[in-house]
Amino acid sequence: MKPINVGLLGLGTVGGGTLTVLRRNQEEIARRAGREIRVTHAAVRNVERAHAKYAAEGLSITDDAELIVNHPDIDIVVELIGGISPAKELVLTAIANGKHVVTANKALIAKYGNEIFARAQQQGVMVAFEAAVGGGIPIIKAIREGLAANRIEWLAGIINGTCNFILSKMREEGRPFEEVLKEAQARGYAEADPTFDIEGIDAAHKITILSAIAFGVPMQFDAAHIEGIAQLQAADIRYAEELGYRVKLLGITKRHPHGIELRVHPTLIPARRLIANVEGVMNAVLVKGDAVGATLYYGAGAGAEPTASAVVADLVDVTRLHTADPNHRVPHLAFQPDRLVDLKVLPMAEVESAYYLRMRALDRPGVLADVARILADLDISIEAVIQKEPAEGADQTDVVMLTHRVQERAIDQAIARIEALPSIEGRVVRLRVEALNG
Known about the structure:
By secondary structure, this protein is an alpha/beta fold. 37% of the residues lie in helices and 26% in strands. It is built from 15 helices and 17 strands. It has helices at 13-24, 26-33, 47-54, 65-70, 87-96, 106-123, 139-146, 161-173, 177-187, 195-198, 201-215, 234-242, 304-320, 367-377, 408-419, and strands spanning 4-9, 37-43, 60-62, 76-79, 100-103, 127-128, 152-158, 225-226, 245-256, 259-270, 282-289, 293-300, 352-362, 382-387, 396-403, 406-407, 424-433. Strands 7, 8, 9, 10, 11, 12, 13, 14, 15, 16 and 17 form an 11-stranded mixed beta sheet that branches. The chain has a 6-stranded parallel beta sheet with strand order 3-2-1-4-5-6, sandwiched between helices.
């Protein structure tokens, strides 16, 4: 059978890993796909450097990406450029030319997936994006196909390895955020400009994609609530540990009758949960279905070959279905396109969670009573309290409280009133708590 010809847009870490995996496992992949998958063309910024590295691969290398997406002999375009432009324009051109697309670009899918999938449906081609979330973890296939019998109730994921590495180091070694970030950059786990990672944007792209697949809703990235880890202090990670919790940056999405939650923020998780013990740069996603219960997916969330594993798996899927009736393919967002539901994303004021509160209080009688009265007035019950002895010669100390579950609007009101007390100095630190007990 005629080989499938693939054109790569981008030949960096993941592109190189894709070539390596395809070549090393060529026979096995062909047996699975039913025909040979052959990378024939690649578009790169630095042609000379790519020639020096990949001359023996039999590749036609160019710096003209338009040549790839318009080439008549290329069946599948693999987009590994990242970012929005020119990736979006190139992907849409490839689709218009009747080519299937495989991409690892979570920002592109989260922001423009609705448009891209609609164009692909019109043209009868596939857009595969397993590598966009979780690196080598086949989480999209698991939700879209493996859990197809289930009504998905919620997902929670550690889906940014940079942040997980930083939080793991802060917990293990008690070091401040800025210091651990520098180590992450030195090790290559964080970019020179780490904003997308540490501010939660990367995780928000990924949870937006998972939410759409889990619930059959359009991509709604602009409605996501996003908080990063840059303001986290080692003291809060230490206090969480004393209370039996670990702090992780989670992407969370939950289904409700009147809408969905879509949020990214640092979260306290009970230390006994498996997901709370995912350390370093590893990723994990916990999915709760009504039939199967809670299922956990764990693995490398980045890296050349783990991500290439997902890219090549998509290539195999597309190759198998290359000539299939488009109506018999697995839908991009798991549900048939005309059966998507437009559930709104709930504002954070309507989200219900338990809370960790830390405040700097004067060490004198009645302070705890004043705080407890404010919480009681708003029907917020307290689960646990830690009050530290003040340092020698100091008249202030840390007070830490865990609350039971309550709507966020109530905790917002409570924090405003607590900060107004004359016995409380500065801002109240607020972190959300999720049991994740299935």
